Amino acid sequence: MTPLLLGLAAYAAVFAAFGPRLLRACARRHRAAPRVGLVLWTALPTSWIVALLAVGLAATAHLSGGLGLAGLLHACLRAVRAILTVHHPADVPAAVALLGSLAILLRLGWTTARQIHHNRRRRTKHRREVRALMRTAHRCGQRFSIIDSATLVAYCVPGRRSEIVLTTGVLRGLPRDQICAVVAHEQAHLRGRHHLYVTWGSILATAFPFVPLLRRAPHELARLVEWVADDQASARHGSHSVARALATMATALPASTGAAPRAALSATGSDVLDRVRRLVEPQPANPGSRWSTRTAITAPLLTLAAAAAVLLPAATADPTPLCQGGQPPPQSSSQADRTAT
């Protein structure tokens, strides 16, 4: 088990610092296939968290005698007592590893709960503020809401009562084909549940801002979901219609800045100039980036397999001796050899 632990620890350390560089090497391929980039920028940060937790929990099990999750808690209590009463000092490393894992889980859970609460509150506030100003329209095969405003703004509000919102400025300032392209773009956001990717990236960056890989994730995920939505809208209405609509709406800024709520996904929510250039001048994937993409895809899969391999013994070990209030059973020589490896 020790080689797997060391491998997971090395993975967490290396990808925390150099993960963004690896993914930048895949950028040319992401530009041509943004779905691949979306998967990678979601999977790699998530696998980093999994690796870190697996290292902490498995190390605790290893240091506490391998008696499983019950043994972990027992070792933690013994270590706290050791700190206070100077008994069983050998349990302190196991307790430190366990408490570190619990700290990561608590930090992640607290940040997740707070982010979800804030997003729901913003969406509820937005609906309450604009409900009286909204009216419903049906165009381009899609129902959406209209707000009276001269600004050119389009966005979607995700959630259980998801909706697409366009201003009257969009309906007056864009021809029908471009309006349909904008509606299709926002519809792609809702169908793909793109807000979940963006929210997850924001949670990780907020919880662990000192990790370069996680700190970069929100920006990359926000850009990639826009690329995916652009491609889906282009498949239905043509890339030039999408590009012209984006360019027209972008030239209305900064007068339209702030019209879309923070918890929504706006059609002009990312680098519009780069998106227009990508639609008008598509570039094929660079064959040289394939090895980087394969490495980036393989790394999370191997990490999950390694995490399962090191955590399974801890989760399935027999905790009966501890449940009966006894001490960990002595290991045989063969068991000791297996534990050492």
Which tags fit this structure?
single chain, about 350 residues, alpha+beta, five-stranded mixed β-sheet, 5 strands, about 5% strand, elongated, metalloprotease, M56 family peptidase, metal ion binding, metalloendopeptidase activity, hydrolase
Element layout with pairings:
Layout: H1 2-25, H2 27-32, H3 34-63, H4 68-85, H5 92-130, E1 134-139, E2 142-147, E3 154-157, E4 163-167, H6 168-173, H7 176-191, H8 194-207, H9 212-237, H10 239-251, E5 265-266, H11 272-280, H12 290-316, H13 320-323, H14 333-340
Parallel strand pairs: 2-4
Antiparallel strand pairs: 1-2, 3-4, 3-5
The gist of it:
This protein has one domain (2-340). Helix content is 70%, strand content 7%.
Tally of domains: 1
Question: How would a crystallographer describe the biggest sheet?
Answer: 5 strands, mixed
The radius of gyration is 25 Å
- Shape category: elongated
Mean pLDDT over all positions = 78
| Residue share in β-strands | 5-15%
Helix coverage percent = over 70%
Strand tally: 5
State the secondary-structure class. alpha+beta
SSE order in H/E notation? HHHHHEEEEHHHHHEHHHH
Quickly count the helices. 14
Order of strands in the sheet with most strands: 1-2-4-3-5
In the predicted model, the low-confidence regions spanning at least 5 consecutive residues are 318-329
In whole angstroms, how far apart are the ends? 6 Å
Region (Disordered): 317-341
Family: Belongs to the peptidase M48 family.
GO molecular function, one term: metalloendopeptidase activity
Transmembrane segments: 35-59, 92-113, 196-214
